[in-house]
Design goal:
The chain is an alpha+beta fold. It has a domain of 173 residues: Immunoglobulin-like. It contains two helices and twelve strands. The strands form three sheets. A five-stranded antiparallel β-sheet has the order 5-6-3-9-10, with no helix packed on it. It has a four-stranded antiparallel β-sheet with strand order 1-2-7-4, with no helix packed on it. Strand 5 and strand 6 form a beta hairpin. It is globular and about 50 Å long.
């Protein structure tokens, strides 16, 4: 086989594998964040938000996770997790707030605090789920600053991208979701489960859902396909060169 053809083939294959490796590295970095994945994002609907805790603080086990609710929310119902105790922290409002149903509140739930019964090791992960009603505010992004406390140190996942800033450039982004329209022209929900979720996480942030597994599997399959394609190209060119040599 012509050495120049072989060199070009190997170079192309190496470039492909290198690009795929970069994609895997980027995906791994994104999954390292504490993120949130909603089962729905439609305005004025009830949703389940799953907060993924993928690791500790610089290899130290996690002991406490405090999730701050944005001002647009009045309350949230934490799902029981057998590995944690949980409490709701309330705050007094500066002035009474009238709700859509006509009732008035003077307090709101400002934080949901989970405390580990046994510290969550750095190489293990867990998921914390909140049930809440999303406000009727399509297009609004809700941020959930989350303070992760460990046996040694802590990480405050509270950074919010400024206008024009890439949220993926943040070192400790706050988990967030964006509310979508309640219904489309045909009367069905305009958004499907998990649409507009920001993994700053999840998903994504690192919640470990079935969708995450499928995405990793698809990426791995794509890398395998590219590698096999490179090998097939090399074989086909080798066969063609052999045929040309036999014809001479």
């Amino acid at each position: 086989m012509n050495t120049s053809i072989l060199r070009r083939t190997l170079t192309a294959a190496a470039t492909t594998v290198g690009s795929a490796a970069l994609l895997l590295t980027a995906a791994a970095g994104a999954s390292a964040h504490v993120g949130v994945t909603p089962d729905k994002t439609t305005a004025n609907s009830y949703a389940l938000l799953t907060f993924g805790i993928p690791h500790g603080c610089d290899e130290s086990a996690t002991t406490r996770v405090a999730i701050t609710l944005p001002a647009e929310l009045n309350d949230a119902q934490p799902t029981v997790n057998p590995n944690w105790t949980v409490e709701k922290v309330t705050e007094q409002l500066a002035e009474p707030k009238k709700l859509a149903d006509g009732t008035t509140i003077t307090k709101r739930t400002s934080q949901i605090v989970y405390t580990a019964k046994t510290p969550l090791a750095d190489d293990l992960r867990d998921a914390l789920v909140l049930s809440l009603k999303l406000p009727d505010a399509a297009g609004t992004t809700l941020h959930f600053p989350t303070l992760q406390t460990c046996e040694t140190g802590q990480t405050d996942w509270a950074e919010i991208a400024k206008e024009g800033q890439d949220p993926h450039s943040l070192e400790a982004p706050a988990p967030s979701i964006t509310i979508t329209e309640a219904a489309g022209p045909d009367g069905h929900d305009a958004a499907t489960a998990g649409t507009a979720a920001h993994s700053t996480g999840p998903s994504s942030a690192g919640t470990g859902t079935g969708a995450d597994a499928r995405n990793w599997a698809g990426l791995a399959a794509g890398i395998g396909g590219l590698a096999l394609g490179g090998l097939a190209l090399a074989r086909s060119r080798r066969t063609a060169q052999a045929g040309e040599a036999a014809a001479k």
